[in-house]
Design goal:
The chain is an alpha/beta fold. It has 17 helices and 18 strands. The strands form two sheets. A 15-stranded parallel beta sheet has the order 1-5-6-7-8-9-10-11-12-13-14-15-16-17-18, with no helix packed on it.
């Protein structure tokens, strides 16, 4: 049973209402429109561009949804699909399909919406040709002579009808996600570079784009790209990468573990502003040779480190944690060599550490260093660590720990600020749950008790200790659906999941 207010269904209902009811369409505000379309994929969002309703089409062009374009749902897409998309976007740009608000009433949504309707009448002729169709004859237009689009600026124009100054807001795309589009090739960068709406991309993600062999083409633009975040696949090409010198503004880098050591060295050397480094999946050997480690130790500016399924020795972890003392977020997933000693080193060395995730690091145990700064601790499928001491923790996930009536006080007695607790698969029964919630239940908002030997008695325990609970997960327990429904006595509860 999932009583999650059916958020997805509500969104679909809202979309249907928008498409069908012109009366509502003419009254809908921009914030409401954006809240709906932000939950859509771009295929659904694009339907609004061909709407017969002028007001809806106006909201479409003015929407904040353009800032993030996630195309990862088009797994089978080929180069021609990206070509057509870029052509359509250039059509919109060339036909001046901008939306605006009065400078005078910039913060007045109601006035803005009325102005949308009024000025759509004036622009009707320009908008007639902007229906979204897949026309193979569309050509991607290169607008190198227009400097405005490089800076994502607001364009000021004069409205001749009422002599007011208007502010036209661009829809330039800041984030482009094409993850898992395994058929697209490096040719798509040519189309992207010639698309005005994509001229100011700051964040690019092309994970698992297996047919992209090289990346140089993305930077072959008349203006210099200022890339802030990159998430890249493994490039298999004899072409030497020449884009390293263009990464001076990069702050976030996500690479596959199959990257060569010399390449990662060049990335680190070329990105003095890098604060987030993510490496994933390397099982054949260790990526970190002595020269690379020496370079990484000097990257004191790094605050977020993610290492997923990487072969790294415990002594290297200790050296990293002693060197990168400004780390605030550590995420290490599925490493069998790291131990509790390395984690204790991290807790001792990093005064600003606030998130620590070590899921599936099965040899980690004996974490006993006190931390006042840690807010999130995820240690699922590790050894049970009854001596943790994180008094300001608000998010704890310890799936598969062995929680008993003998160690639950030691684990939870110092965690009275918890809001999110996941203790699924921890072998607890009603008695142990009573002990746990008597210590941490008061402020809990989300509680996951799935796959435990708890019965209907636990519902009364939850009602007694968890007055602020919003979500509870009771899958694979001995609790009946009828008894679980009693939890709706809690005034804030809106999600119960049970089967």
């Amino acid at each position: 049973m999932d009583n999650n207010c059916s958020t997805t269904n509500e969104i679909r209902l809202g979309v249907s209402t928008l498409i069908i009811s012109n009366n509502i369409l003419n009254k809908i505000s921009k914030p409401l429109f954006d809240s709906i379309v932000n939950e859509m994929d771009f295929k659904t969002f694009f339907r609004f561009g061909s709407s017969v309703c002028k007001h809806l089409r106006s909201l479409f062009f003015y929407s904040n949804r353009w800032r993030v374009m996630d195309l990862s749902f088009m797994v089978e897409a080929q180069d021609k699909v990206i070509y057509r998309l870029c052509s359509i976007l250039n059509q919109y740009f060339n036909n001046n399909n901008f939306n605006f608000i009065d400078r005078i009433s910039e913060n007045n949504n109601e006035t803005n919406d009325n102005n949308h309707n009024e000025d759509d009448e004036d622009n009707e002729n320009n908008n007639n040709n902007n229906e979204i169709v897949e026309n193979s004859n569309n050509e991607t237009t290169e607008n190198n002579n227009n400097n405005d689009h490089h800076n994502n600026i607001i364009i000021i124009k004069e409205n001749k009808k009422n002599k007011k100054t208007r502010i036209f807001h661009s829809f330039y795309i800041e984030t482009l996600i094409m993850d898992k589009l395994y058929k697209i090739t490096s040719n798509v960068f040519k189309y992207i570079n010639n698309c005005v709406a994509m001229s100011n991309i700051e964040n690019l993600s092309i994970n698992d784009c297996l047919s992209i062999k090289f990346f140089n083409g993305f930077f072959e633009t008349p203006h210099q790209r200022k890339i802030v975040s990159l998430s890249l696949p493994t490039f298999i090409s004899s072409e030497p990468p020449n884009y390293f010198k263009k990464l001076g503004s990069l702050t976030s880098l996500n690479l596959p573990g199959t990257v060569e050591s010399i390449q990662l060295y060049k990335y680190l050397e070329s990105c003095p502003l890098l604060t987030k480094l993510m490496l994933s999946y390397r099982s054949k050997d260790s990526l970190f040779n002595p020269s690379l480690l020496e370079k990484l130790y000097k990257c004191k500016q790094i605050t977020h480190l993610t290492l997923v399924n990487m072969i790294i020795r415990n002594d290297i972890f200790i050296s990293l944690f002693m060197s990168l003392t400004n780390l605030q977020v550590i995420n290490i997933y599925n490493n069998f060599q790291i131990t509790g000693g390395a984690i204790n080193t991290a807790l001792e060395s990093m005064p600003n550490l606030r998130e620590l995730s070590i899921d599936f690091c099965r040899n980690v145990g004996n974490i006993n260093v006190h931390s006042e700064t840690l807010k999130t601790f995820r240690s699922s499928y590790t050894l049970t660590c009854p001596e943790i001491s994180f008094p300001n923790l608000n998010d704890l996930s310890i799936i598969d720990w062995n929680i008993t009536k003998d160690n639950c006080f030691s684990i939870f007695s110092k965690l009275n600020k918890l809001k999110f607790l996941n203790i699924s698969k921890t072998k607890i029964d009603d008695e142990v749950l009573e002990n746990v919630l008597s210590l941490v239940g008061e402020g809990l908002e989300t509680l996951n008790l799935s796959s435990n030997q708890i019965t209907d008695k636990s519902i009364d325990i939850i009602l007694n200790h968890c007055k602020t609970l919003c979500k509870v997960y009771l899958n694979n327990t001995l609790i009946s659906t009828e008894k679980a429904n009693e939890l709706y006595k809690l005034k804030n509860l809106y999600v119960i999941k049970i089967n």
